[in-house]
Structure prediction request, 205 residues.
Amino acid sequence: MTATCCIAVRDLADALLDGQHGTILHEVSHYTAANADGIVRGHLVIHASSARAAAGFVPDDILAKQLASDPARRSFVASAGLLAEHHFCGKTRPLRARADIAAHQAVFGLASADLIIAHWKQDYLPRIGALAGCVAANFDRCVHYCDTNRFLIDDHHVIPSCMLRSPRWRGLRARLDEAVWTYPVKERRRALEEFLAVHAGSRTA
Prediction:
């Protein structure tokens, strides 16, 4: 690859990471990692116009408690956004992962961000690579949903997890149950209200 091609690829990676697509990649990776070892339904919340506004995966309350009770799984889920950036783009945006790093520190102690990221890469990067196909599929779906405003509520896209691809096989009953709890407008509004209450005034890079 020529130097010019390397610069072009680097510029493309920067453009993706610094825009809404970077936010989508980060958040769908959290969803995919959360569902790698069991069902965690919920909603992806992406700001419609600002790539710097807070975004996130809002899990169902009951399943969120189950996830929080498993420190190793919680650490893997926290790592997924930054590691997916590294896997697909060869670089990361650590400021976007501030909340993820803080969540890890709350469980495992106040290690430095650099040490935590190094730990994530050593322990979890192969798992993210194994999930890359699912992450990519969900990225494509969410880009489409955002481009078409299919799940737009006010100034946020609130995408139900039933419209995403799970990394694990689910039977018809499980898929229908997830749709009942995530697809209705009232459930999407509830998730948005919960998200806004938690992230009031916060912004990410």
Observations:
- Residues 1-9 have pLDDT under 50 and may be disordered.
